Amino acid sequence: MILRTVALQNASVTAVATTCGVGTAYDLGAVEAAQTAYAALHLLTSAAGAANTILFKIYSASSSGAGFATGETLRFTFTALACRGAEWGTPVPGAFGTCQKFWRTQWATSCAAVRKALVEFSRTCQ
Q: How many C-beta neighbours within 10 Å does residue 74 have?
């Protein structure tokens, strides 16, 4: 059973308008040994042209602040998308340890066009 899904990047609130960026870090708790982490990407708008791609990743860390730069762990990488679409991330088995409880997105684009995306995170209950 999957617990609630949390939007790490919410298109209805903030569009992705820069070539690279990071989202807000959220304390969503650690993924325990008996749990599995899940993620999904929904690219709702895109820039014109097949060469204009966007790539999203999801990281976990023990701190929401400066610790993210040095203590983060890559958990999900989505396929670079050039047009609207959706993708499930490969499920990640738990046992991250209690310190890896902050989650955030990171993106890189090939152009500075405004895009809207929804990146979601969830995990199974124990």
A: 10
